[in-house]
């Protein structure tokens, strides 16, 4: 029998990318192959994001597009996974009756069973936070070769309850995977050709599946021959402990790039966000990190227009950014999320949010560009990932996560070489093989 076809569309964060891979692999065991074309699919799965309103609304407009497909192919199964599934549950099927199944992020191992329950137009829904660990029950990754970079989820959920954020509700309480399972999965990835692993967690530096915390896990991973690079994301400033700071100084495989969101620079707003740290705490932390690893590139997340943010509060965020100098950053207008404390508070007008976001992004772009331009003339280590758009070109990432293009046919994906940066463009660097 010809294999059935599965089309997965992934929204949102890197954890969803990882989950989608794992779901595709689990469905492989049920006779499904993935396809890049929804019109060829026997099953369509949307792996969704609920972090901001726009992200959540995309799901419904995407579902609207599948109406015709379902009319032509009544056996087509349509599923919604991810954080919108968790947050809205059966409401999704009320708004879009063609949806056959809804599955929350902690129940992905139950997907084959849920699918088998959708015969004859029946609906299946699972948004539990089950006792069992989905990763123990999700089918193992098949041994097929793969590219040189991979994500590996080590921690999920969050207990911080920032006043704007849906994650503690959609992903649940903080849970860490035991280190031995993470190490087994990492060794398997390396056997399949992976040379760089990015450890994922909503609050990854709160990881406690190893007695030495995240730093202990990183050092254990660093022992794996063939694994060349380790990264992790996303971290909370309050969980940046001494051991993890020290690892940035002396663990060669840990890359000098850290995503450490602060969200805002005004202590009043930080307090109302329930962040439990001040701007000064954050700046001191950055100083300690840079004392340990002077060339560390920092990245952050910022929210503008949080309820009750004044122009003065906003300026405090701008001052903090000026003090830190970020190598990259993500910034967002505050978006009201149902069920979170901040959604109930007096809101900043939309045009004010737009204006602040523009000014903030202009500052971040200038900083980003300045740090990138400063790489010209320097040598970096690039791990090549794939051919570039131009023939004879390869693209890879420096240790600082800059995309670097090199004109050479000497490299294959996974190779690491010392590259001298010769120019800096809007989104990437160009380099040549560094002279010995
Ligand atoms: N509105 C805007 N941005 C948000 N984020 C989380 N919740 C919201 C919200 N309600 C941002 C934060 C977080 C990133 C993943 O998304 O900056 O770090
Ligand atoms: Fe959301 Fe991160 Fe705050 Fe947790 S720490 S509530 S995931 S923003």
What does this structure look like?
It is a single chain. Among the domains are: 4-126, Rossmann fold (3-Layer(aba) Sandwich); 148-255, Transcription Regulator spoIIAA (2-Layer Sandwich); 379-433, Nucleic acid-binding proteins (OB fold (Dihydrolipoamide Acetyltransferase, E2P)), CATH 2.40.50.140. The chain contains 15 helices and 19 strands. Helix 10 (213-222) runs parallel beside helix 11 and helix 14 (311-324) packs parallel to helix 15. Strand 18 and strand 19 (429-433) form a beta hairpin. With 436 residues, the protein is α/β, with parallel strands linked by helices. Helix content is 34%, strand content 22%. It has helices at 14-28, 53-65, 67-72, 82-88, 91-95, 111-116, 134-137, 167-170, 179-191, 213-222, 242-250, 267-272, 279-292, 311-324, 350-373, and strands at residues 4-10, 32-34, 43-48, 77-81, 101-103, 124-126, 149-153, 155-156, 175-176, 196-200, 229-233, 257-259, 297-304, 328-333, 379-387, 393-397, 403-407, 416-424, 429-433. The chain has a six-stranded parallel sheet, with helices on both faces. A five-stranded mixed barrel has the order 15-16-17-19-18. A three-stranded parallel sheet has the order 7-10-11. It binds 5'-deoxyadenosine and iron/sulfur cluster (SF4).
């Amino acid at each position: 029998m010809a294999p059935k076809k599965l089309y997965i569309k992934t929204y949102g964060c890197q954890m969803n990318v990882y989950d989608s891979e794992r779901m595709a692999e689990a469905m492989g065991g049920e006779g499904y192959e993935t396809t890049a074309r929804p019109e060829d699919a026997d099953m369509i799965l949307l792996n969704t994001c609920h972090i901001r309103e726009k992200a959540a609304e995309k799901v419904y407009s995407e579902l609207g597009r599948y109406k015709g497909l379902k009319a032509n192919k009544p056996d087509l199964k349509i599923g919604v996974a991810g954080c919108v599934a968790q947050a809205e549950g059966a409401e999704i099927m009320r708004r879009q009756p063609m949806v056959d199944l809804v599955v929350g992020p902690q129940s992905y191992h139950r997907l084959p069973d849920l699918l088998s329950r959708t015969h004859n137009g029946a609906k299946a829904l699972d948004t539990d936070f089950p006792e069992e660990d989905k990763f123990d029950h999700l089918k193992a990754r098949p041994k097929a070769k793969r590219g040189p970079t991979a994500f590996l989820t080590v921690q999920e959920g969050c207990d911080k309850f920032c006043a704007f954020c849906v994650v503690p509700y959609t992903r649940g309480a903080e849970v860490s995977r035991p280190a031995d399972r993470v190490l087994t999965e990492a060794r398997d990835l390396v056997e399949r050709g992976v040379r760089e692993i990015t450890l994922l967690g909503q609050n990854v530096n709160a990881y406690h599946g190893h007695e030495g915390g995240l730093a202990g896990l990183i050092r254990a991973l660093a022992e794996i021959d063939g694994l060349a690079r380790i990264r992790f994301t996303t971290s909370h400033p309050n969980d940046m402990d001494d051991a993890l700071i020290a690892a940035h100084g002396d663990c060669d495989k840990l890359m000098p790039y850290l995503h450490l969101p602060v969200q805002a620079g005004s202590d009043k707003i930080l307090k109302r966000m329930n962040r439990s740290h001040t701007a000064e705490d954050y700046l001191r932390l950055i100083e300690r990190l840079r004392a340990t690893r002077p060339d560390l590139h920092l990245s952050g997340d910022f929210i503008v227009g949080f309820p009750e943010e004044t122009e003065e509060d906003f300026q405090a965020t701008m001052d903090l950014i000026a003090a830190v100098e970020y190598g990259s950053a993500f910034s967002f207008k505050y978006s009201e999320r149902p069920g979170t404390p901040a959604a109930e508070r007096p809101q900043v007008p939309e045009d004010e949010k737009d204006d602040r976001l523009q000014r903030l992004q202009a500052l971040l772009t200038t900083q980003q560009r300045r740090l990138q331009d400063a790489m010209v003339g320097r040598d970096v280590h690039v791990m090549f990932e794939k051919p570039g758009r131009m023939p004879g070109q390869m693209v890879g990432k420096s240790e600082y996560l800059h995309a670097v293009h090199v004109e050479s046919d000497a490299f294959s994906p996974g190779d690491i070489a010392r590259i001298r940066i010769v120019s800096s463009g809007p989104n990437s660097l160009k380099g040549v093989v560094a002279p010995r």
